[in-house]
Amino acid sequence: MARGVGAGALLCLPTIALAHSPMQGIGEFYGGILHPLLVPAHALALVLLALMAGQNGLEAIRRCHLGFLPALALGLVLAGLGNGSEFKLEPALLLASVLAGLLVVLQWRPPLPLFYAAGAGVGLLLGLDSAPGDLAPGPAAASLLGTGLGAFTCLLLLADLSERARRHWQRVALRVLGSWGTASATLVFALGWLAA
Fold this sequence. Notes:
8 helices
């Protein structure tokens, strides 16, 4: 009995927790690739932005990518330099997710220049919110490079899949995904606001 209690107490000892720490065993670069998919606010923003762009055709996807990639790179560079880490950017990403999700649900076709702004806004926020924590400069750069690659690949693939959904049931499924994403982002935003 005493050994069991002792073992349980050892399991409860606190360890260091970093918000954006690399995953154990896979290295900083591969941890960076998975980072946008494992942080809920980042994943929701990427998925809903991709659905919104894909639902509006190839030109909307192209403009979204042209806004997203340079803004993401800028955000990652600033995060690597230590800028932006003092701001809490998750609520802004969740708000962007809600807006993109509502556009997916309503199937509203916004003007094409809006896709530059939407891509740039999400890319910049995602990059700034991806500071790698307390890593040496080399591993931090590898983590940020992986994050950029993972985020852009995710956006690219999901927007392409969304654009290829042309049958009626596929369009309905996209709207359902948009509504689920909107509801999820709204709940996380509300819980964060109530906890603050």
